[in-house]
Amino acid sequence: MKRLVPAVAVLLFLSSSAYVGAGPRFITVASTTSTYNSGLFGYLHPVFTRETGIGVRVVAKGTGASLRLAKECNADVLVVHAKAREEAFVAGGYGVKRFDLMYNDFVIVGPPNDPAGVKGLKSASDAFKKIAALQATFASREDNSGTNIKELAIWKRAGIKPRGGWYKSLGQSMGATLRVAGEMSSYTLTDRGTWLAFKEKMGKRLRLAILTEGDPVLFNQYGIIEVNPEKCPHVKRDLAQTYVEWMLSKKTQRLIGTYRKFGEVLFHPSAR
Question: Do 109 and 208 sit in the same domain of this protein?
């Protein structure tokens, strides 16, 4: 699998009012690009800061990179979407406890003319089998993100180890992968929130369409974890705990469930 583009450098994003009136009181949240690019954090964090006086720095990266960042004690809280990896993070002593936070889903997108004939299929693994059989171009993030982890799980479920010129390993973010997929008329897997943001941005230039959706395997659960101060003594434990409790509160869960953009609800609350 040839890597076409070097991995994107670490990007530091700030929520829209992270420091307004917050002074030195802030936490760092390592999260996925989907939560940031969807506008969810820009919607929630100003409310959190106004109510608590705590600012929020968001480092938006793939799940694997976010977990690594937290293991290196460079974050106070994680919001990511690869449950098995999250549970291993906690089991290793790096996280205090993992909580379900919210969910949405993944979709398979590709060229509207759909040369592999996957449109309308209810099985993601069947769609991947047809793409591989035709050797239709497939763009993979190949960045250890939650989306990449899900993609690899679907290939495994299909009994296929993708390799060859048709399988493009990009090492890119979801937005960049969608852009390249459009340019190459290729298939790819994306979370719905990033897809909707990309669709709105591209408008009439859009060269991709949702082709396969609705398979339970495409369920996309997000978790929230406070980084363990026993591993990372410099973690802002009280502030991080305030943030986690606020995100799991009934009020914030309602805010998540009513957040609409691009004409759709992007995330569904799932805190118990």
Answer: yes
